[in-house]
Amino acid sequence: MKQAVITGATSGIGKETAANLLRQGIQVLLLARNASKADQVCQELHHATANPSVDYLQVDLAEMKQVQEIIGAIQKKVTGIDILINNAGLMTLNREESPDGIELVMAVNHLAVMILTEGLLGTMRERSRIVMLNSVAHRAGKWTGDLNLKEGWSVARSYGNSKLANLMYAYHLARELRSKMITVNAVHPGVVGSGFGQQWGGFMKYGWKVAKPFMLTSAQGAKYPSHLALSEEVEGISAKYFKKGKMVQSSSDSYNQEISKEVLLESRKLIDEILA
């Protein structure tokens, strides 16, 4: 039986993607911050898909040491990973810091992904697939030399920078794993009317509510990461960016290996300092 690990799978695209994998007879392990919600979702997925092979582990991706520690627990739950879907994502309306003192959006959307993915590489089987949930918002990202964005913070730059860094990491990792036949791709699933904007207040929450009827449903959005995880059409394809179901070019900055090297060196420096 194939085995998959999915972050942020208690709602929205993540939950629907988990359901798609379970329907294909795949064993799915969810990583979630809220244990009671994850337990409920596992029961719902079991009944909806008739596949009992779904379980969860609790982890807060904002805390780097928790992410590091969960790797061992995952390895006890699975015998080998065929699919890793880094789905969890965060956007905030104000600059916040993680418990480790890192700009929160960057911590969750990028640094946690690096720690988790690299920690699980030794558990991944040959021809396994890594899928990064990304966004066209990466085009708003700009490397300033400071992952923490202590100056010039804005919602768009915060989220855009995190997705740009994540995309640079995806391309770097794809190059590193080419000889191991592990593929890494990123996907923008479209604008999905999930619960993503429900934590916002005031005008932003109202705007999200007004726009929601024109957005994709979570099930529609989940088709795209599911395709990258399952389809024979993308077998062996790696280091690519997909907008919905189409392979497209990402921003010019995302391909700049000099900038990418700086971003990843700074990322590893922050991670090493926190985990030391």
Explain what you see.
The chain is an alpha/beta fold. The chain has 8 helices and 8 strands. It has helices at residues 12-23, 35-49, 64-77, 104-120, 155-177, 202-211, 218-230, 257-275; strands at residues 3-7, 27-32, 54-58, 81-86, 124-133, 183-188, 240-243, 246-248. Strands 3-2-1-4-5-6-7-8 form an 8-stranded mixed sheet, with helices on both faces. The radius of gyration is 17 Å and the shape is globular. The chain starts with a strand and ends with a helix. Residues 197-212 have low confidence and may be disordered.
Let me know the average pLDDT: 92
Shape: globular
Q: What is the N-to-C order of secondary-structure elements (H for helix, E for strand)?
A: EHEHEHEHEHEHHEEH
| Rg | 17 Å
Largest sheet: 8 strands, mixed
| Percentage of residues in strands | 15-25%
Task: Name the poorly predicted regions.
Answer: 197-212
- Strand tally is 8
- Biggest sheet strand order reads 3-2-1-4-5-6-7-8
Distance between the termini: 37 Å
* Structure classification: alpha/beta
Helix tally equals 8
Q: What is the helical fraction, as a range of percent?
A: 40-55%
